[in-house]
């Protein structure tokens, strides 16, 4: 039995929206002086208020399948990582947010009924250092460009090559690796497991029993990564993430996570970044065409109707 594509799109959108709304609630209060652990726990508590999604994400470790990292000036290296699974990059109680912090946030809730993931990730910065602002702009620009380039029939490696070429032109690099991908290749994202299909009975059992380890193993193993060697083609009914971790020559990392969904060939892009950009006043340095593109993706996602194929 095949999965209901429209139902799955609704589930992905709702799970991701839950993550964004919960984070917005956390950030609606003054976060100055709060630790990474405080922000992590507060975010999870807000997500837990929505019973249709799992408050413990599928991508674990890190704890609860989510992360908050606080990069402090002048180098912001705390928010630079190779893998969030690394214990050294788990949220800590002694790393505190300030107005000048570079924040990296990630979570991976799952819709309980359909097993569709609702991953969300972003780099947020309300400070005034031009170098950091410029790098965030480059990261968003490259990622939006890759999202726009994706089309049905394209090999995933074509999308990867397009994104990497854009990074080279801007003299930045992508440091996204997966510890579960034995190839060791860098990637810019992965497919959404079981989109257009029914998840295995073991997956449904893991969701029912809240068996986090079993869910993590199943989800991790069911992904295909968007790498330079991935010859699989984007189908008419396909969903995948675009989430390069883009690092500047001076070691500042910025990353934005989008989910691209094709149903019957029609394309929908899930972003959810607009309210967070507003919270950190990022429009004062992000180019208008980039914030407008994000806002349009958010508008289409809220309407629930993708543009025609």
UniProtKB/TrEMBL annotation:
Residues 172-184 have a biased composition (Basic and acidic residues). Residues 172-191 are annotated as: Disordered. The chain crosses the membrane at residues 256-278. It comes from the Bacteria. Keywords: Membrane, Transmembrane, Transmembrane helix. This is Uncharacterized protein. It comes from Umezawaea tangerina.
């Amino acid at each position: 039995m095949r999965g209901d594509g429209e139902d799955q799109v609704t589930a992905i959108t709702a799970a991701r929206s839950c993550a964004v709304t919960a984070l917005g609630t956390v950030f609606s209060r003054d976060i100055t002086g709060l630790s990474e652990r405080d922000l992590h726990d507060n975010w999870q508590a807000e997500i837990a208020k929505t019973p249709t999604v799992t408050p413990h994400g599928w991508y674990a470790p890190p704890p609860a399948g989510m992360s908050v990292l606080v990069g402090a000036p002048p180098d912001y290296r705390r928010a630079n990582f190779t893998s969030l699974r690394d214990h050294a990059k788990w949220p800590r109680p002694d790393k505190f947010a300030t107005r000048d912090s570079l924040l990296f946030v990630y979570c991976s809730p799952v819709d309980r009924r359909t097993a569709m993931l609702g991953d969300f990730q972003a780099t947020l910065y309300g400070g005034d250092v031009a170098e950091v602002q410029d790098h965030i702009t480059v990261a968003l620009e490259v990622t939006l460009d890759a999202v726009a380039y994706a089309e049905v029939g394209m090999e995933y490696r074509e999308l990867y090559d397009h994104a990497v070429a854009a990074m080279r032109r801007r003299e930045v690099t992508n440091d996204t690796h997966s510890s579960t991908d034995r190839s060791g290749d860098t990637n810019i994202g992965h497919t959404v497991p079981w989109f257009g299909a029914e998840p295995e009975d073991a997956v449904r059992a893991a969701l029912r029993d809240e068996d986090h380890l079993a869910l993590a193993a199943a989800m991790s193993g069911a992904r295909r990564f968007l790498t330079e060697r991935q010859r699989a083609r984007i189908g008419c009914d396909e969903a995948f993430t675009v989430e390069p971790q883009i690092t500047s020559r001076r070691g500042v990392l910025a990353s934005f996570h989008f989910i691209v969904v094709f149903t019957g060939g029609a394309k929908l892009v899930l972003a959810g970044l607009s309210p967070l950009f507003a919270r950190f006043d990022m429009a004062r340095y992000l180019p208008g065409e980039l914030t407008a593109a994000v806002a349009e993706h958010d508008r289409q996602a809220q309407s629930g109707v993708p543009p025609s194929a």
